[in-house]
Amino acid sequence: MNQNSYHYPPQQNGIYYHPQQPQQPQQYLLQQQIKRDKAHEMTEILTAGLALGAALIATLVLQVIGVSFLQLSGKYELFEKSFLFQHSANIIIVDVIGLIIPFAVMSLLLKNRYTTPVIPREKVKFGVTVSWVGVGLAICMGANFLTNFVIQVFKQFGYELTQFETLKPNSVFECILMIFSTAIVPAICEEFAMRCTALGALRKHGKAFAVVAVSIVFGLLHGNVIQFVFAFIIGLILGYVTIVTDSVIPAMFIHGLNNGLSVFQDILAYAINSKNTQDLIVSIVMIAYIAAGVGGLIYLLVTKQFLPKKEVKQPKPYKIHFLRKLVLLIPGLILPFAILIYLTSKTIVPIS
């Protein structure tokens, strides 16, 4: 005798069966998947912020260790007085150890997040490269004017903005070394850290978001208000150029030639005694940069190379707002940002 109970489920024609559960609507399942995908991307942004913050902390720690080593070994006085030692130490401690190593490790940890090569290196036509370099340099000149305006505003309120001053060259050899230590090496190392590893890690979450976020980091990394304002603005164009061209080479040239202008001024001061002549030559170079920017912009607009290429891809069924993405980065960046903001604040001193 068949009996339907807890121990004996219902039978039909002698075959046990379980009542089917009502199927969930397809739309509901799709919505749940969208929610999971959105939560997953938000988690990715959060972990990218943690990794970026860890790289920044490692940068600061390694630089502190380097300076501490100089102090403990009795070489810090030599660092302050010797041009050769100071600029060589800056290359090793600040650029190679302080930037290349932490951000290279970060890129290895996040290697599955990159949708493009860690070092973007698409072939860019010579004319396009020259045009972007010109545009970038012209924006650098504009950023210089804006930075000077910020300096004057602080002065009106009784404060002076200071920054670390390196020793000036007194020989041809020192001039050559300064080109490497101030223009070439920082352009390579900083672009690798910012526009390669950091930008690449965030790029999949939105190009504009990645460019702005990395530019903020780039500005604070310089540790003073003067360079923060300048570096943030320049970071925007360097990131944009890298996104548009899918190559970091134009950004490196812009960075190097911009830094090279300050090197050029120091070399002129060594080679020419007349301050008026120095100022005249520098003014001519700055005008040339601006002219190159205008010409480059016209070329890029005419050849339709100014805007990023439209990518044919499936749009996401959800949206994470720009500001929310920035907020998701904050937990990982709180500590390094607090340290960098503190260091930056120490460069603001009352005018005596």
Identify the notable features of this structure and list them briefly.
two-stranded antiparallel sheet; 352 residues; 72% helix; 4 strands; mainly alpha
Description:
- The protein has 352 residues and is mainly alpha-helical.
- The chain is built from ten helices and four strands.
- A two-stranded antiparallel ribbon has the order 1-2. The protein has a two-stranded antiparallel sheet with strand order 3-4.
- Strand 1 (11-12) and strand 2 (15-16) form a beta hairpin.
- Helix 7 crosses helix 8.
- The chain is globular, with a radius of gyration of 27 Å.
In sequence order, what are the helices and strands, one letter per element?
A: EEHHHHEHHHHHHE
Shape: globular
The helicity comes to over 70%
Structural class category: mainly alpha
Strand arrangement in the largest pleated sheet: 1-2
Sheet of most strands: 2 strands, antiparallel
Radius of gyration: 27 Å
Strand content: under 5%
Helices, by number, come to 10
Distance between the termini: 105 Å
Rounded average pLDDT: 90
User: Got a strand count?
Assistant: 4
The residue ranges in which pLDDT falls below 50 over 5 or more consecutive positions are 4-8
How do the helices and strands line up, and which of them pair or pack?
Elements lengths: L10 E2 L2 E2 L9 H47 L3 H6 L1 H27 L16 H31 L2 E3 L10 H32 L3 H15 L3 H21 L3 H23 L3 H28 L19 H24 L2 E3 L2
Helix pairs in contact: 1-3, 1-10, 3-5, 4-7, 4-8, 4-9, 5-6, 5-8, 6-7, 6-10, 7-8, 8-9
Concise synopsis of the structure shown:
Helix content is 72%, strand content 3%. With 352 residues, it is an all-alpha fold.
